[in-house]
Design brief:
Blueprint: H1 3-64, H2 69-84, H3 88-109, H4 113-117, H5 119-154, H6 158-165
Helix pairs in contact: 1-2, 1-5, 2-3
Amino acid sequence: MKTSAKIALGIGVAALILFFMISSSYNSLVSLDEGVNNARANLEADLQRRMDLIPNLVETVKGYAGHERETLENVIKARQQVAAAGDLDQRLAAEQGLSGALSRLMVVVERYPDLKASQNFRQLQDQLEGTENRIKVSRRDFNQRVQDYNTAIRGFPTLILARLLGYQPKLGFTAAPEAQQAPKVQFK
């Protein structure tokens, strides 16, 4: 084999290896980015499910504990703030206020044995509890996907391709500082 043929073959093999490395890195970036987008959509769906349950829960509590107006209004106000939030980060911040308002509502419910015994209320409470668990799992999955994505775009050699194609780090869900404290409930 001639020297020029060997050089051409070497260049061809190197180009083929480079092509496979780049296409593999690109496909990995696309897959991770789509994973983050899917996890975000699942989290938003779970948050929306909770939003849909709240009006029924509030109406049920109103029937039994109508004079707990302030607590019910706080839940409704917190729900409206979530609905008015723009992007997912704003919505997650508003969701924390909603979680606190719902916690206070559940404390109020403890004072009404007839309400706790109501089949309708128990079903709503079970659905809300299940939804809260789904939200917790969705948040964890979302954060894991974000971490995997961010790790990939910072690793070599994917880092080069990620920068060339404009892939930016993504932010995961972080709890607001006030979420570290239990909600304060005061009985009047």
